[in-house]
From TrEMBL:
This is Diacylglycerol kinase. The chain crosses the membrane at residues 21-40, 46-66, 87-109, 115-141. It is found in: Cell membrane. Keywords: ATP-binding, Cell membrane, Kinase, Lipid biosynthesis, Lipid metabolism, Membrane, Nucleotide-binding, Phospholipid biosynthesis, Phospholipid metabolism, Transferase, Transmembrane, Transmembrane helix. InterPro entries: DAGK, DAGK_sf, UDPK. The keyword DNA damage does not apply. It is a multi-pass membrane protein. One of its GO terms (molecular function) is kinase activity. Its main location: membrane. The keyword Magnesium does not apply. It comes from Bittarella massiliensis. Belongs to the bacterial diacylglycerol kinase family.
Length: 153
Protein backbone atom coordinates (compact mmCIF):
# COMPACT_ATOMS: atom_id res chain seq x y z
CA UNK A 1 0.00 0.00 0.00
CA UNK A 2 2.76 2.46 1.07
CA UNK A 3 4.79 1.44 -1.98
CA UNK A 4 1.87 2.17 -4.32
CA UNK A 5 1.53 5.66 -2.87
CA UNK A 6 5.27 6.19 -3.25
CA UNK A 7 5.13 5.16 -6.94
CA UNK A 8 2.12 7.42 -7.56
CA UNK A 9 3.81 10.33 -5.80
CA UNK A 10 6.97 9.81 -7.84
CA UNK A 11 4.93 9.76 -11.06
CA UNK A 12 3.19 12.96 -10.07
CA UNK A 13 6.48 14.68 -9.21
CA UNK A 14 8.19 13.61 -12.45
CA UNK A 15 5.24 14.67 -14.56
CA UNK A 16 5.14 18.06 -12.81
CA UNK A 17 8.82 18.60 -13.55
CA UNK A 18 8.48 17.51 -17.17
CA UNK A 19 5.13 18.97 -18.26
CA UNK A 20 4.47 22.69 -18.29
CA UNK A 21 0.74 22.07 -18.84
CA UNK A 22 0.60 20.20 -15.56
CA UNK A 23 2.33 23.09 -13.78
CA UNK A 24 -0.27 25.41 -15.32
CA UNK A 25 -3.01 23.18 -13.85
CA UNK A 26 -1.30 23.28 -10.45
CA UNK A 27 -1.01 27.07 -10.61
CA UNK A 28 -4.68 27.34 -11.61
CA UNK A 29 -5.63 25.04 -8.73
CA UNK A 30 -3.62 27.17 -6.28
CA UNK A 31 -5.32 30.31 -7.63
CA UNK A 32 -8.79 28.77 -7.37
CA UNK A 33 -8.21 27.68 -3.77
CA UNK A 34 -6.75 31.09 -2.89
CA UNK A 35 -9.85 32.87 -4.22
CA UNK A 36 -12.40 30.41 -2.84
CA UNK A 37 -12.25 31.60 0.83
CA UNK A 38 -13.64 34.98 -0.30
CA UNK A 39 -16.82 33.29 -1.52
CA UNK A 40 -19.73 32.09 0.58
CA UNK A 41 -19.27 28.52 -0.64
CA UNK A 42 -21.15 25.70 1.03
CA UNK A 43 -19.87 22.14 1.33
CA UNK A 44 -21.33 21.19 -2.06
CA UNK A 45 -19.51 24.08 -3.75
CA UNK A 46 -16.21 23.02 -2.17
CA UNK A 47 -16.82 19.43 -3.26
CA UNK A 48 -17.43 20.66 -6.82
CA UNK A 49 -14.15 22.61 -6.74
CA UNK A 50 -12.19 19.57 -5.59
CA UNK A 51 -13.86 17.39 -8.22
CA UNK A 52 -13.32 19.85 -11.08
CA UNK A 53 -9.61 20.31 -10.25
CA UNK A 54 -9.11 16.57 -9.74
CA UNK A 55 -10.78 15.81 -13.07
CA UNK A 56 -8.41 18.07 -15.00
CA UNK A 57 -5.36 16.81 -13.08
CA UNK A 58 -6.29 13.20 -13.73
CA UNK A 59 -6.92 13.81 -17.42
CA UNK A 60 -3.62 15.69 -17.88
CA UNK A 61 -1.62 12.99 -16.10
CA UNK A 62 -3.19 10.24 -18.20
CA UNK A 63 -2.55 12.30 -21.34
CA UNK A 64 1.09 12.66 -20.31
CA UNK A 65 1.37 8.91 -19.78
CA UNK A 66 -0.20 8.21 -23.19
CA UNK A 67 2.16 10.68 -24.89
CA UNK A 68 5.22 9.15 -23.25
CA UNK A 69 4.13 5.63 -24.13
CA UNK A 70 3.44 6.63 -27.74
CA UNK A 71 6.86 8.29 -28.05
CA UNK A 72 8.50 5.20 -26.57
CA UNK A 73 6.83 2.57 -28.75
CA UNK A 74 6.88 4.66 -31.92
CA UNK A 75 9.45 7.45 -32.18
CA UNK A 76 8.58 8.02 -35.88
CA UNK A 77 5.61 9.85 -37.34
CA UNK A 78 2.65 7.49 -37.51
CA UNK A 79 -1.00 8.14 -38.36
CA UNK A 80 -2.37 5.88 -35.61
CA UNK A 81 -0.07 7.41 -33.00
CA UNK A 82 -1.23 10.87 -34.06
CA UNK A 83 -4.83 9.73 -33.67
CA UNK A 84 -4.21 8.35 -30.17
CA UNK A 85 -2.37 11.49 -29.04
CA UNK A 86 -5.09 13.76 -30.46
CA UNK A 87 -7.80 11.75 -28.68
CA UNK A 88 -5.90 11.93 -25.35
CA UNK A 89 -5.39 15.67 -25.78
CA UNK A 90 -9.11 16.02 -26.63
CA UNK A 91 -9.91 14.28 -23.34
CA UNK A 92 -7.93 16.92 -21.44
CA UNK A 93 -9.60 19.73 -23.38
CA UNK A 94 -13.10 18.36 -22.66
CA UNK A 95 -12.35 18.06 -18.93
CA UNK A 96 -10.78 21.53 -18.80
CA UNK A 97 -13.71 23.20 -20.64
CA UNK A 98 -16.32 21.64 -18.35
CA UNK A 99 -14.23 22.37 -15.23
CA UNK A 100 -13.93 25.99 -16.40
CA UNK A 101 -17.73 26.07 -16.82
CA UNK A 102 -18.16 24.89 -13.22
CA UNK A 103 -15.62 27.53 -12.13
CA UNK A 104 -17.49 30.33 -13.90
CA UNK A 105 -20.78 29.25 -12.26
CA UNK A 106 -19.15 29.24 -8.81
CA UNK A 107 -16.96 32.35 -9.08
CA UNK A 108 -19.49 34.64 -10.79
CA UNK A 109 -21.25 34.98 -7.43
CA UNK A 110 -21.78 38.75 -6.77
CA UNK A 111 -21.19 38.55 -2.99
CA UNK A 112 -17.91 36.73 -3.51
CA UNK A 113 -16.82 39.16 -6.24
CA UNK A 114 -17.54 42.10 -3.91
CA UNK A 115 -15.54 40.52 -1.06
CA UNK A 116 -12.67 39.76 -3.40
CA UNK A 117 -12.71 43.28 -4.86
CA UNK A 118 -12.67 44.81 -1.38
CA UNK A 119 -9.71 42.64 -0.35
CA UNK A 120 -7.69 43.47 -3.46
CA UNK A 121 -8.44 47.19 -3.05
CA UNK A 122 -6.30 47.33 0.11
CA UNK A 123 -2.51 47.77 -0.28
CA UNK A 124 -1.88 44.51 1.60
CA UNK A 125 -4.41 42.62 -0.54
CA UNK A 126 -3.03 44.04 -3.78
CA UNK A 127 0.52 43.15 -2.72
CA UNK A 128 -0.48 39.62 -1.76
CA UNK A 129 -2.34 39.14 -5.07
CA UNK A 130 0.67 40.36 -7.08
CA UNK A 131 3.08 38.19 -5.06
CA UNK A 132 0.87 35.15 -5.57
CA UNK A 133 0.62 35.74 -9.33
CA UNK A 134 4.38 36.29 -9.61
CA UNK A 135 5.15 33.11 -7.62
CA UNK A 136 2.76 31.03 -9.70
CA UNK A 137 4.14 32.47 -12.96
CA UNK A 138 7.70 31.67 -11.87
CA UNK A 139 6.69 28.17 -10.87
CA UNK A 140 5.07 27.52 -14.27
CA UNK A 141 7.97 28.94 -16.28
CA UNK A 142 10.96 27.85 -14.17
CA UNK A 143 9.68 24.83 -12.21
CA UNK A 144 10.54 22.34 -14.93
CA UNK A 145 13.50 20.03 -15.14
CA UNK A 146 16.67 21.30 -16.79
CA UNK A 147 17.33 20.25 -20.38
CA UNK A 148 20.35 18.20 -19.25
CA UNK A 149 18.39 16.40 -16.51
CA UNK A 150 18.39 12.74 -17.59
CA UNK A 151 16.80 11.29 -14.46
CA UNK A 152 13.73 10.24 -16.44
CA UNK A 153 12.87 9.92 -20.09
N1 LIG B 1 4.64 10.16 -33.61
C1 LIG B 1 3.66 10.93 -34.07
N2 LIG B 1 2.99 10.58 -35.18
C2 LIG B 1 1.99 11.35 -35.66
N3 LIG B 1 1.57 12.51 -35.09
C3 LIG B 1 2.17 12.91 -33.98
C4 LIG B 1 3.26 12.16 -33.41
N4 LIG B 1 3.70 12.82 -32.31
C5 LIG B 1 2.93 13.91 -32.19
N5 LIG B 1 2.01 13.97 -33.17
C6 LIG B 1 1.00 15.03 -33.37
O1 LIG B 1 1.43 16.19 -32.67
C7 LIG B 1 0.50 16.52 -31.63
C8 LIG B 1 1.29 16.99 -30.41
O2 LIG B 1 1.99 15.88 -29.88
P1 LIG B 1 3.10 16.00 -28.77
O3 LIG B 1 3.55 14.67 -28.35
O4 LIG B 1 4.13 16.96 -29.24
O5 LIG B 1 2.27 16.61 -27.63
P2 LIG B 1 2.55 17.96 -26.87
O6 LIG B 1 2.48 19.10 -27.82
O7 LIG B 1 3.79 17.73 -26.08
O8 LIG B 1 1.26 17.92 -25.99
P3 LIG B 1 1.10 18.47 -24.55
O9 LIG B 1 1.16 19.94 -24.78
O10 LIG B 1 -0.25 17.94 -24.13
O11 LIG B 1 2.24 17.92 -23.74
C9 LIG B 1 -0.29 15.23 -31.39
O12 LIG B 1 -1.57 15.50 -30.85
C10 LIG B 1 -0.34 14.63 -32.76
O13 LIG B 1 -1.36 15.23 -33.55
Amino acid sequence: MGRSFACAGRGLWRALRAERNLRIHLAATALVFSLAPFYPFDRGDWALLFLACGLVWGAELLNTAVERLCDRVCPDRDRAIGWVKDAAAGGVLACAVFAAGAGVCLFADPAGLRALGAAIATPLGAGAALALLAALGLFVLCGGKRKDDKTHF
